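the two lines:
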Amino acid sequence: MTIAPPPSGPVPWEREIALAMLRDMLRIRRLEERAAELYGEQKIRGFLHLYIGEEAVAVGALHALAPEDNIVATYREHGHALVRGMPMRTIMAEMYGKREGCSRGRGGSMHLFDAKLRLYGGNAIVGGGLPLAVGLALADKMQGARRVTACFFGEGAMAEGAFHESMNLAALWQVPVLFCCENNLYAMGTALARSESQTDLCVKAASYGVPTLKVDGQDIVAVHEGAKRAQQHVREGKGPFFVEFQTYRYRAHSMFDPDLYRDKQEIEQWKTRGPLHTFSARLKAEGKLTEAQFLALDAEVAKEVEDAVAFAEAGSWEPVEDLARDLYSS
Amino acid sequence: MKTTYREAMREALREALKADPRVFLMGEDVGLYGGSYAVSKGLLEEFGPERIRDTPLSELAFVGAGIGAALGGMRPIVEVMTVNFSLLALDQIVNTAALYHHMSGGQFSVPLVIRMATGAGRQIAAQHSHSLENWYAHVPGLKVLAPATVEDARGMLSAALADPDPVVIFEHAQLYNMEGELPQPWSTDITSACVRRKGSAVSLITYGGSLPKTLKAAELLAGEGIDAEVIDLRVLRPLDDATIIASVRKCRRAVLVDEGWRSGSLAAEVMARIVEQAFYDLDAPLARVCSEEVPMPYARHMEEAALPQPEKIVAAAKGLFA
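prediction for all of em together
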């Protein structure tokens, strides 16, 4: 496979906006690097799916959305929760399984929910969030709300029936869903070409009469500008839109994955397209960022991470007597 | 007032749609076609295609969309044509609807009602005759109802819609034409089991489409001098242990009647609870009449042989007095 050259070119944003994007990408990166360490220390258990390498997608896309929009995400959703506004402390506490976590420690890494942020999970069945997103958008359409439901899923979900049924329903009913496919080329260990007869994912989506856009997911500028266009279409009531963000995860699928199905050289090549260093290099080239400023930003983020860890460490365990709590609402 | 089970269900839908603009019905052929069992016939003309919403044959997606719409502030009623097809939506029902409240730490509720026809008895063979109520009743987070009378067909829906959590309603296809008296006012209870016939010698415990057969068996037993009590479970999750145990303590003998396959059946669960809670009150081993453990055959005599029948229930009950 040919891998495109690293993202380059001018950054068409005010410095503040550009730095906010960089900062959010860095926050995801440092949070997850620390989470991986904590996993090694057995502070975090269960499944832990890292987003490292894909940060530009969540950051660029979520910055294009409005606070009243709905977000449906997958089990690789730390970044989405963080950018959406969930405090790092709350995410870390949830990963620890502590009561101070967003889901009281009931969900863990894969099930980050926040009703106030309209973050509908944290859905850990591949493709499971897609019908949900169609329903949320249907409710908005029936109630006359001009809201976008952004649904994130991996390319692996496109082999599920849920994808096809949901695309069809969304297009048939013209409901306001922004389908955000995070194509990181591997469904766990299965490469795209080993799972899809049609590897051009936009072609598949377009067969439902849904407009599509293919975006370099390692380029935050392309992601954000593409997402702005796509959400505009959806918000104007023109029906669903499908965006394929072409990206790559630098870490293994989960902490249990020995990563034997990928060529090491391929990983290294994709790392030359890293969303963080290519973007900071562009900002530096334009004089919008100095190395000292980057280091200061990084130090500030590191403090936020350590504060989150301290918060999670100091958190409390839900009493076992509460086991049956929150099974039913009434 | 006399009415049919189908008409009672339709009136319940009509009332719900009139009472709350958030309520809408969606499913395969619920609108233009009039509903595969004609339950929703006429509702499209009255409420329009937005609220009587025909769906493609995409059980997984439209049940999931029901969950999403419920989260988004609506009160959807999703009709899955039959329990057989609900297996295509099992992922959304079990992995999403049932778990959402718990795994979000209580942040989200899913006020969704899923209706589906269930059961055998019309010679529609192996793929259209399942009784899988026990699959759903197995899952914490769901509530499962089995209206078996005209009154429950009329009354349970409004209570299910008022419930903040996902409720699955099983309508036995053999009951739709059943005529009965609708009391005024009708019950809207969705928490308890019900004594359908008072008796003192043996408890016959059943639900759904097996209720008429069990009542018939009780009449036959009365002719032989055995005074049977008939318990209609009505609510399959959570089970109303108190009503079951009170009846068993009184009668000291019990037969479970369940159209599901025997192994892992709801009958098995109820028997286990009786053993746990009333073992020393029993004068005889428990008995059960379930469907034979074969796929449902097409030929009438074979289908009849596979299903619980009044004669089988009578034989099982009499066996407890041997």
